[in-house]
Amino acid sequence: MARILITTSSFDVTTSPALAEIAAAGHQIVLNPFGRKLTEDEAVSLLADGVVGMVAGVEPLTRRVIEAARDLKVLARCGIGMDNVDMAAAAERGITVSNTPDGPSAAVAELTVGLMLDLLRHISANDRAIRAGQWDRPMGRLLGARVVGLVGCGRIGRRVAALVAAFGARVVGCDPLVDSAAGIEMMGFDEVLATADVVSLHLPYDRAVGCVMGAGQLGRMRKGAVLVNTARGGLVDEAALAAALESGALGGAAIDAFEAEPYSGPLAGLPTMVLSSHVGSYARETRQAQEAEAAANLLAGLRIAGLA
Questions:
Q1: CATH among 3.40.50.720, 3.30.420.10, 3.40.50.2300, 2.60.40.1500 for 3-103+284-304
Q2: Which of 143, 159, 267, 295 gets the most CB atoms within 10 Å of its CB?
Q3: How far is CA 37 from the centre of its chain?
């Protein structure tokens, strides 16, 4: 019996007509047993002989992993980013690869704006203080009075631009693949860092480039500015960010994606830091839409391969 592996940390298999049809074709549905992002070694082990299709999360699907998945024919990514997939290795193996490009945009954009508001109005910090018996009343700043800088102006970046513009914010941005975008003043990367009160990252992770916000880039941000990353772990040098927050050079930061997850590190001890557990796309409506699209993509690929 061929197997279908679902590596996302959560997936509602009970409501998917596409998965029901795949199971009816004789395939065994296997779920991620760890309930979290897989390591490379775990992905190699789970994609052993007999796995012909998978619904992928954000685990590292490196050349080593793909070459170990000897029977894999279809890879359906549940999400937008493909930076965790070695596309060249997949193409060499003739594996059909798909993603769900529109699915997470609304959820990630809304979380991004929520984190901006948290940083500017000290919502999480104030909550912690009250629980600790303190009645501080920290002065906040209006999002509508800020300059929001978007590093990456694709689907999610443009959606964030529309949301913060509704507050009255001025929006500037940069993107090597985008010349113009409605409501965004396009400029160079360094100019965005020097101009924005709030810098928000909306880029895929490129292993060849590495982090885009190292000590130098963080040092070019305005004093007291805040940084938000709801894109990918690895885009921000976490040690450099901790140093910038500790020195007071930055007014705060919010991170939803970390280089190593689950996250455990010095950022968790900083009062000007807001952390979330990679929940950008974890809104019920978004997850349902993404899972349905990924399962449909998987079924279509299996049909093309003559496996469903």
A1: 3.40.50.720
A2: 295
A3: 12
Helices (H) and strands (E) in the chain, counts: 11, 12
> Into which CATH architecture does domain 105-275 fall?
3-Layer(aba) Sandwich (3.40)
Burial of 41 (0-12, 13-18, 19+ CB in 10 A): exposed
- The per-residue pLDDT for 45 is 96
261 is catalytic: yes
- Find the catalytic residue in 238, 278, 291, 293: 278
pLDDT tens for each residue of 80-104: 889 999 999 999 999 999 999 888 9
How far CA 218 is from CA of 127, 176, 214, in Å, comes to 27, 19, 6
Q: Domain coordinates of the chain in residue numbers?
A: 3-103+284-304, 105-275
Q: Is the pTM of this model over 0.85?
A: yes
Average pLDDT, the chain: 95
Active site residue 27: no
